[in-house]
Specification:
The complex is a heterodimer. Chain A is an all-alpha fold. Chain A has one domain. The two termini of chain A are about 20 Å apart. Chain B is mainly α. Chain B has one domain: lambda repressor-like DNA-binding domains (434 Repressor (Amino-terminal Domain), Orthogonal Bundle), CATH 1.10.260. A two-stranded antiparallel ribbon of chain B has the order 1-2. In chain B, helix 2 packs across helix 3. The chains are: A mainly alpha, B mainly alpha.
Chain lengths: ~180, ~70
């Protein structure tokens, strides 16, 4: 018994969900930047526990936003890989090299998101405290359970991607037998 | 040495059409054509048994080892 129809149906739905997510995240980020440009007060609210300098320059605020957007861009890239995978599944291309390749890319996407989150927080903490007097500047390093979850999911999907590539090769070979 | 499929010979002997054999053993004509031309990596025992039953022959009647 196969789940071909269920895979197709759910993939069609998930293709729509990932596309909607990509569009809404992009529009939301652009609208946020356009209508509510971040100020040192906003950054203080976003970084509790860090003494954000009230004298931050515009370029420092832009740098914080750019650094903060890196994980978001990686999320968008990973969502795009998911959308392409669901399109493959929707077309019935499940045990194929293309699907395995996408799963591996999603895994690597999660790993990159984890790394970006790990690096962006210390960078942002340095940027928002740079204008403070010596002794008040800080470098904040954190590792949350969310980040660990993203790393584990990334590693798991990368391994599954490799296994799927082997499975796709075996299937292709099996199809050459009559 | 290579294995050659002599299916076309057996079909001619039994005066059977490829289309009829394909229908009887439950594979597509395209796959049967690939099998006849030897453009497949292998043949399943299940398929071989069905062909032998349909053509009333032995596997040795269908497969032959040939020096290259």
């Amino acid at each position: 018994m196969t789940h071909e129809n269920a895979v197709r149906r759910l993939s069609r739905l998930l293709n729509g969900v990932t596309t909607a997510l990509m569009v809404s995240i992009t529009l939301g980020a652009v609208a946020w930047l356009w209508f509510v440009p971040p100020t040192p007060t906003d950054l203080q609210a976003a970084h509790p526990g860090v003494a954000v300098s009230p004298d931050m320059t515009t370029w420092q605020i832009i740098a914080v936003v750019v650094v903060g957007f890196v994980p978001l861009l990686l999320w968008l890239w990973t969502l795009d890989q998911m959308r392409r995978l669901f399109r493959c599944f929707q077309a019935g291309l499940v045990l194929t090299d293309e699907a395995a390749f996408r799963i591996g890319k999603i895994g690597r996407g999660f790993l990159m998101i984890g790394c970006a989150q790990l690096v962006s927080m210390p960078l942002k903490s340095v940027l928002v405290t740079w204008e403070n007097p010596v002794g008040m500047r800080s470098l904040s390093i954190s590792l949350s359970t969310d980040m660990l979850g993203v790393f584990v999911a990334g590693a798991l999907l990368t391994v599954i991607g490799w296994a799927m590539r082997d499975a796709a090769a075996i299937r292709a070979e099996n199809r050459a037998f009559i | 040495m290579e294995i050659v499929v002599r299916l076309d010979v057996m079909l001619a002997r039994r005066k059977m059409k490829s289309r009829d054999l394909a229908a009887e053993i439950g594979i597509t004509e395209q796959n049967l054509s690939l099998l006849k031309s030897g453009k497949v990596k292998g043949i399943r025992f299940e398929t071989l048994a069905k062909i032998c039953k349909a053509l009333d022959c032995q596997p040795g009647d269908l497969l032959e080892a040939e020096e290259i």
